Amino acid sequence: MTQTARSHRFGKKGSRFNVLFPRTRSLSLACFTGVMLIFVGDALADEVQNLADLIDRRIEARWKSDGVTPAPRAGDAEFLRRVSLHVAGSIPPVADARQFLRDESLDQRRRLVDQVLESPHYITNFSNFWTRVMMPESATDLQGQAQRPGFQAWLRQHLGNNTHYDTMVHELLTTKLEGDRSMNSALQNTGTVSPIAFFTTKQIKPENLAAATSRMFLGIRIECAQCHNHPYDSWKQEQFWGYAAFFAGIERTTRNEEAIGQVREVFDRRELTIPDHETVVQATYLDGTQPQWKSRISSRKTLADWMTAKQNPYFAKAVVNRLWGHFFGVGIVDPIDDFGGTNKPSHPELLDELAADFAAHDFDLKYLIRGITASQTYQRTSRKTHDSQNEPQQFARMAVQGLTGEQLFDSIAVAVGHLESFQQQQPFQFNQNGARGEFLELFAPDNNSPTERQTSILQALALMNGQFTSAATNVDQSSTLTAVVEFPWMKTPDRINALYLSALTRKPRPDELERLTKYVDSGGPSTNQKQAMADVFWALLNSSEFLFNH
Amino acid sequence: MTDRARLTRRDLIKLSACGAFGSSMSRWLPALANEVSKSTDRRRSVILLWMTGGPPQTDTFDMKPGHENGGQFKPIDTSVPGIQICEHLPQVAKLMQHCAPIRSMSTKEGDHTRATYLLRTGNLPQGPIDYPTLGSLFSKELGKENSDLPNFVAVAPYTQFSPAAYGPGFLGPKFAPLVVGDANRVVANTPGTNYDQSLAVKNLSLPQGINVERADARLSLLGDLESDFATQRPGLNSESHQSAYAAAVRMMRSEAVKAFNLDDEDAKLRDAYGRNQFGQACLLARRLVERGVPFVEVSLNGVGNNQTFAWDTHAQNFTSVKSLLGVLDPAWATLMSDLKDRGLLDSTMIVWMGEFGRTPKINPQMGRDHFPNAWSSVLCGGGIKGGQVVGKTSDDGMKVDDRPVSVQDLFATMCKGLGLDSMKQNVSNVGRPIRLADPAAKPITEIVG
Prior knowledge:
Helix content of chain B: 25-40%
Distance between the termini of chain A: 34 Å
Radius of gyration of chain A: 26 Å
Mean pLDDT of chain B: 86
CATH topology of the largest domain in chain B: Alkaline Phosphatase, subunit A
Structural class of chain A: mainly alpha
Distance between the termini of chain B: 38 Å
CATH architecture of the largest domain in chain B: 3-Layer(aba) Sandwich
Largest interface: A-B, 74 and 77 residues
Number of domains of chain B: 2
Number of strands of chain A: 7
Strand content of chain B: 5-15%
Structural class of chain B: alpha/beta
Oligomer: heterodimer
Strand order of the largest sheet of chain B: 4-11-8-1-7-5-6
Strand order of the largest sheet of chain A: 1-3-2
CATH class of the largest domain in chain B: Alpha Beta
Largest sheet of chain B: 7 strands, mixed
Number of helices of chain B: 12
Number of strands of chain B: 15
Radius of gyration of chain B: 22 Å
Shape of chain B: globular
């Protein structure tokens, strides 16, 4: 099915089924809808359900054997907020939330994900995601920063076309490197759409590229074996350099050790000498096999072919686990890129089956996202309902996860109705001006696990007293707040409802509503109901419930 | 991550929030605000004077008189017989008995970005490990829980070329510096500027129109939300959120925050430090150390309008360096004497360094270029046996002749001087434990004790 056809069918709220069968609840109608879904040709739909079932079967089997009582299914509001943050990168606007919460059709959650996956938000959010994965050192590397816009444009192009993961990685690994790769050239060509920044952030050195590609794409941390045999794992120094030898053809011809200048590539070089050793090692795959060399095929391409092949024992597992970690906060293998000997998967069979299924579906990232988010496991509430839910790798309740700077800013922007006009990103951002730039700097990526996110004092001060939240909670300046306090025919509880929906994507519980209504009606310390409403909004925006995904 | 690593992190955060999350959560604010550390034992503090861009050793602490690489400046005698330094550091020269110049730094990384990361974290940027900056690393060891002021304050860091070199890395935002003074936007080190403003803590005051009473009401509303969330969804994230908010509120309302009111100081003393951003920042450093802050770093990024990378003197080295030393000398010397007058110099280590030195050879633009092979840093004050020089470079300054000191050697020396066990481990973001300094590092034992 083409993209256009799909977005026609599922892209808009009030799609055909919704119009035909609003509030479908009866079993026969549901069955009928199911039949219709298949009938209209989205055979993928069933496969997505199969994948979701596969996940649930394995996870539930472990609960049974380990005596875990899972948390119940999350309500629609909780699911909506969670999946919006994971897939679209921000909380949903209040209008979307109202519409979704009104929708009582059985497949509303599936349709929501389909819809978001076809939106520009998916592209933006996941281009940030893959940039973090592939260029973790971009904060320390100036040249990488200059080439970041081109790199992100490259990612966006592929995400927009839903290029399958194997194709994307293959293209990355075989990108042309020859030519002037100096800082000056990078600055002059900031508009070039290319994944070259992946290489320059690794200094275009075989050992750095070996360490990065094995960790990112295979989940193998072989870099410790660069200098010595790995103390815990079985990796040997010669294996590291044997793998690095696939990049041995890349030559930096400038004399300066550190600066990158002209780059040449000798396509059939297949060996290198371990630095400070006499040993020459031949290019060898990490599984110990030797490539079948073909003439006129570069060693990089030979490596890329092996790496992205369906039968590669690591490739699919590594990415499936990475995406699992994105959605659950904790990987089946955790840390998510360390498939070392001592770091065992919590659910080995599930990981194998997920990887096999992902490969069988030609590494279609959207398919994997559909499957994970359709599972009952993903749709559990994050509320703790039983002591047996404490172990994160049981996935018995959804983990509370930290937001990235982008997710946080964009969510606040959605909640308060802040609009920032789109600006062509400056290629070389020394000063990211504006509220968003300041936020991204203050909430810069923190590679700690999302379930162990820490807040700094400066972050707390900015959220409590900073200009952006101050304006957002100022009756005269905030779009959302102004609309809520000025709208005539609303009573206090309605206004509080509206603020909760804007910030937390849910309605207040009765006890909350009672407490806050009392506060607002009294006017608080300022004895002014509008100001008291602003106080409530301030508290919502500063709360853990707002600042985390859960 | 192994179970053990997870537990360690968990315990760590538990500790940070100890006692803070009792039964009545809506009362969390006052309870936490009162939980100021009762401990009175004074541990050592560190003041890092960071020379952004790389200062020239040949024009500061490793003069080469009589050699063509020596340049225009003359050496002068110091308070310690036999030790000579640059004529443009006359005040520091008089306090040489407290200082130990290391003339044999040897670090092998000549790129600003990577060298900044190397000198500030002890490691080259490599793969997935986010190493913490030294301020985060040491303040974590030296600091106290629940203190009024943050344990690590950074004044005017110029972070743009290597942001990660200024952050807490795998230690997490709890150990991030409180940053004051925005070096990324130009604040001239020239007379007449309002430095109090530029050295204030951002977002420390309540938003306009919000008084304390209203702030309390807001925090109380927030307390209810937090209480619900922590009960329903217990975990590290919300605990850390609450302890950071508590620390922020504690600081906003503490007496200690008056450290930032430089107007309370005697005008003559302020003059002595130098009426410029760096000088006043050094004064602020003393005020913070006095109130128990264990790690303060102050960056000297430039003078006048050249505020971004002024030690990077590829051209007209001598003009620039002379004006930089004119700011550095009174500030640094006054800092030492002021600390001494208050009995704080013995417990405060001062570290002077940049990311590398500069070429002894003078280029055709009368400049000096990047030089990591043989350069100088200086340790002074608390924990340091001053009045002696470490290492020696060749007559032309091109190589280290005696006792090369690596960045890990320097970190290990600091650990020793501060009374810290350099073998102490932190769990990194990849699960691997990382020691304060590499076990293979050789501390400069003769200057610590």
